[in-house]
Amino acid sequence: MATESSGFEFEFDPGFESDRLRIAWYAFIGVLLAGGAVAAYIRLTEGMASTNLTSIVPWGSWVAFYIYFVGLSAGAFLVSTMANVFEIEGMHRIDRDALFAAIISMVVALLFVWIDLGRMDRMYFPFIWRQLTSALSWEVHAYVAYIGILVTELYFSMRIDLARVAERASGLRERFYTVLTLGRDDTGEASQAFDRRWLKRAGILGIPLAIFTVHGGTGVLFAVSKARPYWNSGLFPVIFVISALLSGTALVMMIYVLRTKLFDGDSVDPELLDRLAQLLIGFIIIDAALTAIEAFIPLASLHPHEIETWQVIMYGPMSWSFWWFMVGLSWVFPMVLLSKKSWRRTPSVMVLAGLSVVIGIIAVRFNIVIPAQILPVMEGLPHGSYFPTLVEWGSSIGIMAVGLLLYTLGAETLPLTPLGGDHE
Amino acid sequence: MSSADGETLPGVPSVGRDEFDAMVDAETTDPREELADVDADTDLGIEMAEDAKRVARGDLSGDEYWAKHDAAAAAEFGDDYRETPNPAVDAGDQTVSTEAAESMQCTVGSMDTVAAESVGTGDGEGGIGAGDEKWGMVIDLQKCVGCDSCTVACKAENRTPPGVSYNVVMEEEHGEFPNTTRTNVPKPCMQCENPPCVQVCPVSATYKMDDGVVNIDYDRCIGCRYCMIACPYGARYFDFGENYDDEVDEAGEITSPEYGVDRGKREENKSPIGNVRKCSFCTHRLERGEEPACVETCVGDARNMGDLDDPDSEVAAMADSSRAFQLKEDEGTDPNVYYLK
Lengths: 424, 341
Ligand code: SF4
Ligand code: SF4
Hints:
The complex is a heterodimer of chains A (424) and B (341). Chain A is mostly helical and 424 residues long. Chain A has a single domain (14-378, 387-417), classed as Formate dehydrogenase/DMSO reductase domain (Formate dehydrogenase/DMSO reductase fold). Chain A has helices at residues 19-46, 61-84, 95-116, 135-168, 171-180, 189-223, 236-264, 270-301, 304-315, 319-338, 341-344, 347-369, 371-374, 390-413. Helix content of chain B is 31%, strand content 12%. Chain B has 13 helices and 10 strands. In chain B, the strands form 4 sheets. Chain B has a 4-stranded mixed β-sheet. In chain B, helix 3 packs antiparallel against helix 4.
């Protein structure tokens, strides 16, 4: 390991390899942001009336996207712990990618929570008043603690490279990177060991936080609703965590390939790619199997409300989202792409597989949130129906564009790839 | 026939004014007999009443009336008289001039101010919902005719916007023509003893009051709608900010003082817009000693309101009867709304 800071050689040139691509990408994000801004303006001026939500279906696309991004974040974080806690060989390369993606996903998730509030001006109230029995009250606090852990981890993972970059840089750039090291600009071995130790500690603390409180807890938030039998099961939070791992792994795999190719101009490590791909296979199988169990138990128990809900999911007007997106894009199609060893080592195919899962899981989240609200809670009350309005779609895309922008800016400035290959 | 024009319409009993007046006279009690039962001076009472009629006819002005009777009334009723609100200074269109009103010996102050004071001091430190009753409702399904009057009365009382209806009547038809039956189940908020909505609210904006009613603090609710997800009865509604402006002029001028809070006009971006709303058992009416609007209105007398903790109350007896049941009893919510089958 070449960690003597003096003789240490590295090349630090983050950002797009191609300027044309950079312009095209920022222009693309700009268009999404502009559309999102219009939608957000309508949302702010017209209030919740700009949505297709009703008193029968009070939770819609924003909530679905919120749990989707919490899942992405938890999944990406858990992938990062394979490198920094379990020290699985060769995973270190994607440690920071995963952590940074996890942070951005949380920011996006919280933006979705915020826009969904009937009173956006009161978004800080949960920190003033609490309710011990409310899962949501606990969750809000868990999210904050979790973001704290993520940032701490990213700091310990990246600090030494920040210090190295600061050493070489001058002027404003030096200041920028020095500030990010929080003044710890030592690049010696002792400081690195210190970082690794604390990175691991933070990771160990983060694992239960991510599994049980952040994402499992988000599942609990739904599962405690006795009024909605479809959610009211013990398996539900577990599936939440598994599908989070699925989407998080897919995201990290995608980001790894794209950033290596487009930003670092390097070649992708086929071993690492294969390892991620195999993980993905495992998660797809567990996710599909648990979902089948989750469907089978209520169907076998002949509970009318649950049977009807499953009928709505599988044969209702929105069943396309179940068959094409949930089953097709998040399970079957990626499974086909992952089936051959040579494909698992082909970056373009794996990007496609990752993208397929990442999109498919969106449908999983919608199919969690919406169907449980379609059947009335009491016989004699009207059935619900819901499809997001343009304002809801537009603002959702805008919020995601904010995430893309933040991610790109970070990827263009931060040493997300470990420098000098000292992290095997 | 004493009918004025002598014409009789088919099917309409031909009765003239004189007969009506005679009926009224026959029904009126003799004032002297009536007043004899009261401690106060009978002659004074009759004299004041006769003069009051003359004021009504316009033969006497309000000022003259009070100039004539104020001293005698004060002498007769003493402190009771001096402490009553002054009936003359109520509104802008009062019948007595301001000078005359001020010269009177009874407390100068309108009925309104006195009423407001007595509400404010009524139940001491406790405030709204602090009563030691446990409010409960019993709805007799045998008496409900499914007319939806309760729903309408509730909308009028609470001035709920479009899409918000604290009370609905769930109507279901069973069987096939001609052998059909119909069940009507009126459904307000159950004011559950163990309310899931309270359990899930992240900011404790919704909570149970001492009198058993589940309150929503519109100034604290962040509009996350978790409570709507948790309520097993679909009793909660989100206020999307819609109005009846097209239907009614100045529809938002008045709002109902739900949970005892007067919020003035309904305005954009002002609570309860963006909040979750639900039936409050008309807490503001209960505090005034009135029944909820739906109970008062019910044409079949199917709805009953009272204190479930008071074993002598009618509702307690009804809730105890073998006909009584609650909706979704196995949810464990223990509603304070009972039904009689
Ligand atoms: S009926 Fe619904 S809103 Fe009313 S107290 Fe029960 S759970 Fe809460
Ligand atoms: S919508 Fe309001 S009352 Fe309902 S849970 Fe959220 S904050 Fe509480």
